[in-house]
Write a structure and sequence with these properties.
It is a single chain. With about 160 residues, the protein is an alpha+beta fold. It contains three helices and six strands; from the N terminus they run ααββββββα. A hairpin with a 3-residue loop joins β2 and β3. α1 packs across α2. It is elongated and about 70 Å long. The two termini are about 35 Å apart.
Protein backbone atom coordinates (compact mmCIF):
# COMPACT_ATOMS: atom_id res chain seq x y z
CA UNK A 1 0.00 0.00 0.00
CA UNK A 2 1.37 3.40 -0.99
CA UNK A 3 2.03 5.74 1.93
CA UNK A 4 1.70 9.27 0.64
CA UNK A 5 -0.15 11.06 3.47
CA UNK A 6 1.19 12.32 6.80
CA UNK A 7 -1.07 12.56 9.84
CA UNK A 8 -0.04 14.53 12.93
CA UNK A 9 -1.86 14.41 16.25
CA UNK A 10 -1.38 15.44 19.84
CA UNK A 11 -1.24 13.02 22.76
CA UNK A 12 0.04 12.87 26.32
CA UNK A 13 3.54 11.78 27.39
CA UNK A 14 2.37 8.55 29.04
CA UNK A 15 0.71 7.26 25.85
CA UNK A 16 3.76 8.25 23.78
CA UNK A 17 6.11 6.35 26.12
CA UNK A 18 3.85 3.29 26.08
CA UNK A 19 3.78 3.27 22.30
CA UNK A 20 7.56 3.65 22.17
CA UNK A 21 7.98 0.65 24.51
CA UNK A 22 5.71 -1.45 22.31
CA UNK A 23 7.69 -0.39 19.24
CA UNK A 24 10.96 -1.29 20.95
CA UNK A 25 9.72 -4.73 22.01
CA UNK A 26 8.38 -5.48 18.52
CA UNK A 27 11.47 -3.96 16.87
CA UNK A 28 9.39 -1.68 14.69
CA UNK A 29 9.17 2.05 14.23
CA UNK A 30 6.72 4.08 16.27
CA UNK A 31 5.01 5.11 13.06
CA UNK A 32 4.57 1.46 12.04
CA UNK A 33 3.08 0.51 15.42
CA UNK A 34 0.56 3.37 15.30
CA UNK A 35 -0.36 2.56 11.70
CA UNK A 36 -0.99 -1.11 12.54
CA UNK A 37 -3.18 -0.17 15.50
CA UNK A 38 -5.20 2.28 13.43
CA UNK A 39 -5.54 -0.18 10.57
CA UNK A 40 -6.87 -2.96 12.85
CA UNK A 41 -9.45 -0.59 14.34
CA UNK A 42 -10.60 0.72 10.98
CA UNK A 43 -10.74 -2.75 9.40
CA UNK A 44 -13.39 -3.84 11.90
CA UNK A 45 -15.58 -0.80 11.33
CA UNK A 46 -15.28 0.20 7.69
CA UNK A 47 -14.81 -1.72 4.50
CA UNK A 48 -11.49 -0.51 3.13
CA UNK A 49 -10.70 -0.57 -0.57
CA UNK A 50 -9.32 -4.02 -1.37
CA UNK A 51 -10.39 -5.61 1.92
CA UNK A 52 -13.61 -7.36 2.86
CA UNK A 53 -15.53 -6.60 6.01
CA UNK A 54 -16.32 -9.65 8.11
CA UNK A 55 -20.06 -10.33 7.94
CA UNK A 56 -20.19 -13.24 10.32
CA UNK A 57 -21.66 -12.72 13.76
CA UNK A 58 -19.34 -15.26 15.38
CA UNK A 59 -15.60 -15.76 14.94
CA UNK A 60 -14.57 -18.89 13.07
CA UNK A 61 -12.05 -21.44 14.28
CA UNK A 62 -10.13 -23.42 11.70
CA UNK A 63 -10.25 -27.12 12.53
CA UNK A 64 -9.99 -30.52 10.95
CA UNK A 65 -12.67 -32.66 12.54
CA UNK A 66 -14.11 -35.88 11.08
CA UNK A 67 -17.86 -35.70 10.61
CA UNK A 68 -20.91 -37.47 9.27
CA UNK A 69 -23.44 -35.66 7.11
CA UNK A 70 -26.90 -37.05 6.45
CA UNK A 71 -30.38 -36.04 5.37
CA UNK A 72 -32.87 -36.90 8.09
CA UNK A 73 -35.93 -37.19 5.86
CA UNK A 74 -34.31 -39.03 2.95
CA UNK A 75 -35.86 -42.33 1.82
CA UNK A 76 -32.53 -44.01 1.25
CA UNK A 77 -29.45 -43.88 3.41
CA UNK A 78 -27.49 -40.72 2.63
CA UNK A 79 -24.90 -41.00 5.39
CA UNK A 80 -21.71 -39.43 4.11
CA UNK A 81 -18.35 -38.78 5.71
CA UNK A 82 -16.83 -35.32 5.70
CA UNK A 83 -14.31 -33.06 7.39
CA UNK A 84 -15.29 -29.91 9.26
CA UNK A 85 -12.87 -27.23 8.02
CA UNK A 86 -13.97 -24.39 10.27
CA UNK A 87 -16.64 -23.90 12.89
CA UNK A 88 -18.27 -21.09 14.85
CA UNK A 89 -21.29 -20.75 17.10
CA UNK A 90 -23.31 -19.81 14.03
CA UNK A 91 -22.28 -22.51 11.58
CA UNK A 92 -19.53 -24.44 9.86
CA UNK A 93 -17.72 -25.16 6.62
CA UNK A 94 -17.47 -28.83 5.78
CA UNK A 95 -15.68 -30.69 3.00
CA UNK A 96 -17.63 -33.62 1.52
CA UNK A 97 -17.27 -35.88 -1.53
CA UNK A 98 -18.23 -34.17 -4.79
CA UNK A 99 -21.03 -36.64 -5.56
CA UNK A 100 -23.02 -35.80 -2.40
CA UNK A 101 -26.34 -34.27 -3.42
CA UNK A 102 -26.42 -30.76 -1.95
CA UNK A 103 -28.48 -27.75 -3.02
CA UNK A 104 -28.36 -24.17 -1.84
CA UNK A 105 -30.77 -23.53 1.04
CA UNK A 106 -31.11 -27.30 1.50
CA UNK A 107 -30.77 -28.84 4.96
CA UNK A 108 -28.64 -31.61 6.37
CA UNK A 109 -27.77 -32.97 9.79
CA UNK A 110 -24.21 -33.41 10.95
CA UNK A 111 -22.46 -35.22 13.76
CA UNK A 112 -18.86 -34.41 14.67
CA UNK A 113 -16.66 -34.85 17.70
CA UNK A 114 -14.82 -32.05 19.43
CA UNK A 115 -11.36 -32.93 20.79
CA UNK A 116 -11.40 -34.13 24.42
CA UNK A 117 -15.17 -34.68 24.38
CA UNK A 118 -16.69 -38.14 24.68
CA UNK A 119 -20.07 -37.50 23.06
CA UNK A 120 -20.50 -35.94 19.61
CA UNK A 121 -22.06 -32.61 18.65
CA UNK A 122 -25.29 -33.01 16.66
CA UNK A 123 -26.59 -30.10 14.59
CA UNK A 124 -29.11 -29.42 11.85
CA UNK A 125 -27.73 -27.07 9.21
CA UNK A 126 -28.98 -24.99 6.29
CA UNK A 127 -26.64 -24.76 3.31
CA UNK A 128 -25.68 -21.17 2.48
CA UNK A 129 -22.78 -21.68 0.06
CA UNK A 130 -21.42 -24.48 -2.11
CA UNK A 131 -17.88 -24.21 -3.48
CA UNK A 132 -15.52 -26.51 -5.32
CA UNK A 133 -13.01 -28.16 -2.99
CA UNK A 134 -9.81 -30.04 -3.65
CA UNK A 135 -9.49 -33.60 -4.95
CA UNK A 136 -13.09 -34.43 -5.92
CA UNK A 137 -14.68 -32.65 -2.97
CA UNK A 138 -16.96 -29.70 -2.46
CA UNK A 139 -17.22 -27.38 0.51
CA UNK A 140 -20.52 -26.50 2.10
CA UNK A 141 -20.89 -23.33 4.13
CA UNK A 142 -23.84 -23.81 6.46
CA UNK A 143 -25.67 -22.10 9.31
CA UNK A 144 -26.79 -24.01 12.38
CA UNK A 145 -30.58 -23.95 12.59
CA UNK A 146 -31.17 -26.48 15.32
CA UNK A 147 -29.21 -28.46 17.84
CA UNK A 148 -29.62 -29.70 21.36
CA UNK A 149 -28.56 -27.54 24.28
CA UNK A 150 -25.72 -29.87 25.28
CA UNK A 151 -24.21 -29.64 21.77
CA UNK A 152 -24.28 -25.84 21.89
CA UNK A 153 -22.65 -25.90 25.32
CA UNK A 154 -19.82 -28.14 24.07
CA UNK A 155 -19.32 -25.96 21.03
CA UNK A 156 -19.28 -22.77 23.12
CA UNK A 157 -16.74 -24.26 25.53
CA UNK A 158 -14.52 -25.44 22.65
CA UNK A 159 -14.61 -22.09 20.86
CA UNK A 160 -14.02 -19.97 23.96
Amino acid sequence: MKKDVTICFRTNEELKQTLEKIAEVERRSLSSIIENMLHSQVKDKVELKGSRKERRRYARKEVSLPAFVYKRDAKESTLQTGIVIDVSLGGLKISIPHDYDAVSEGEFDTIFTIPNEKTPVKMRCTIKRIAEGEEATKELGADFVDGDFVSYQKLHKYLA
